[in-house]
Please model this.
Amino acid sequence: MATVLADAKRLAMADFKGKVDPDWCPGCGDFGVLAAVEKALVDLQIPNHNVVTISGIGCSSNFPGFINTYGMHTLHGRALAVATGVKLANHDLTVLVTGGDGDGFGIGGNHFVHSMRRNVDLLYIVMDNQIYGLTTGQTSPTSRVGMKTKSMPFGNIEAPVNPISLALAAGATFVARGFSGEQKHLTELIKQGIQHKGFSFLDVFSPCVTYNHDNTYQWFRPRVKKLEDDTAYDPAHWLSAMEKSLLWGDEIPIGKFFERSDLPTLHGAEPVLNAGTLLHGDTQIPPDVARSFVEELM
Amino acid sequence: MKQTFTIAIGGAAGQGVATPGDIFAKIFSRRGLHLNAYNAYQSIIRGGHTFLTIRTGPEKVTNMGDRLDLLIPLNQDAMDRHLGLLREGAACIYNADTIRPGDARHGTALCPLPVSKLADITRNKVAQNTLAVGAGLNMMGIGFQALEEVLTEQFKKKGAAVVSENVEIARAGYDYAAASFKPFGWPLPMTGNRYAVLSGNIAMAMGGAAAGVKFYCAYPMSPSTGVLHWMAAHARKANIMVRQVEDEIGVVNMAIGAAHAGVRSMCATSGGGFALMTEGLGLSAMMETPVVVIDCQRAGPSTGVPTKTEQGDLWQMLGAAFGDYPRVIAAPLDIGDCFKIIPEIFNIADRYQCPGIVLCDLLLSEGRLSVDPKELDFAPVVDRGELITEAPSTAGTNGDGVYKRYKITESGISPRAVPGVPGHTHTAASDEHDEDGVLISDEFTNPTKRRAMMEKRMRKVAGIEATVPPPALSGPRDADITLIGWGSTKGVIEEACEILTEQGILANQLQIRWLVPLHGAAILDILKDARHTIIVENNYSGQFARYLRSETSFVPNGYIRKYDGEPFMPHHIVEAVKEQLGGKSRLSVPVHEILV
Model:
């Protein structure tokens, strides 16, 4: 997926800096995710023009504007659908999808599930802050039971979605969780997610410092435990991953839950792409083929 | 009046109405005859009532016509519903073992087939159908060889035994008719022409392939699914990526994604699916990523009548997506036009980087028409507009900001670089943005920039208007009556005009193909000398009439509307015109006499 620059010029962090600075609130977890993505692209030396960063709508979905790659800022919940089209039209591109929990698990839930079962080759980073931020603080699909927000002032009575279990069940071939407060770890996960051939899902705890006063940096820090620190943990084992995904409370695992590389990607499974990308293929139907199409009808 | 011959086959779904229909269609087109086929059916896989009409003749046929010449009822229900439609010279071929004829009008022939005597019905469940086809062709004066050829093709996959069994049954019907039934007064002629017979859905799919569509995706929805079926079946030969998506929201966004990456991208749906797509249309307009969406209208609102036709989605198209944005909306005029219109609308969508909507309907989508193969041009003019698909790899990272995706230009068109091109990185945004793609809607909101970008996009409208030709009047200028229609009603209005003219009421026609841009001034100019104008359309409220009035203040003398799910027949329009010229009414709603 990634083509590496052949000439001597090595890409640096500055090359990925976007035209404008992020307009996120000071202290927002998304800053950490942006820095980790830029660092991962520098480490992997993927040229800017070969990367497309695609988002939906929300605070974190303004991400494409803050990084110097091709970017698409699409509709609320629709980034994965758009990204699938981009990847299928030009599978030489590295496709990153960025967004929030409301965008991905709420309004975009349908595309989330189906993109995973299709094993579209892209990295989907959800900046999960368990709240709707841009609409000034309403309950999100990952808000915990009891959490008080403007839309549920007496406390949330709905059980949250478990993004990791959902991704595992839906057939994502790379499932990981990061924490914006763990930069190096997060960068590693992003690199692995980009290099993985298939659908990589990365849920990132990215605290909202303005509207979520429950799930703060201080709340996460003592709880997050890296799966990589457990030498016995085998991310090739789906059942163990599912079991780990259910942990929530004093111990919340972060890291790579699951990866398998034996399944074909969507573009890899499609014979139409055997000859190369759609973008670079012939657009005219050869005359003998066109003739055969008409003769079928005679 | 032109000479045509119409066969109608009626029965329950699952009884095999389609196969005899296909056999007749093939034989007619191979005799060099034109044909139009329309199937009235229900959303049911087994049972119910299906009524297929095939009208043929040496001159172009464009609609189902007014007269049935041969009725083949496959069950009692079909006999009871339709025998009364037959007039002088028509015939009804039926299974005498299972169906009782009703009272036929004087001059129509009842042709009972002793099915169990002519074929082994324990072995062949559809023997009655094949016998009827054989008998019918004999009465039309068509040699048996034509039928034998088609049956051989039809059944060759099932082996020689099945072929010979069917040929034998057909032969028995053919010979029985020769001995027992009077031939039709007009033996079907033969010409040296050869036609392709296709549905509007196949035509639009092939038109897409011809236009260079590389990405097609859809969610199944009647009556648009035929486009998906053709695309899927031919994807590998045509090298087109075809995807079935989880819902129409996913469809339009996936299509936009592929289009954004630089390929021509298309999708089709019906009104309900289109409703889900409308936010995506706005995205296409805002990001200036061209995409073509086909809406095959069916009778609404809501799930409505999924298998019936209507022209009821016009205002949904006009109002699709919020805000103002440039777009084109075209309504194909017939099945051949379903093919042609796709490359045309892609060229406009690509040049003006905006969404294009093809407003088709069930009548065309699922109807079938003979089309001259020369009209199916797989090498049409392709204009991708100002598209940048390559640049030297030394072009840098665009840190200098030289390339502006949304550069403000006089035409409103900004050169479009696709992802992967060095030196042109930018963000394409759903939020309002600046020339270089930076979002202005949040902290950078700026009325000056917003106004400049709105005006840039909307300047494209003038270019689109100059590209799309205005409509033209067909028929004599000094007519007594001018019939105005849009899209699929072209053929039936044309025939109504011919009949009216023969009956001494000189009629002409203004048929609208491009709904947006409409060319209101040109339309007013055409209509200013008209003596009596009537707008004909397949919906309840006169959606086009309201649209035309909103754009031009034009009010016609009368309206002919139909919203029972079935298409117009020529006499519906002829009788309504006479009624209105007699001053009896300004609004006619013809009754569909065929019980389907």
Remarks:
- Residues 27 and 146 of chain B are 6 Å apart (CA to CA).
- Chain B is about 35% helix and 20% strand.
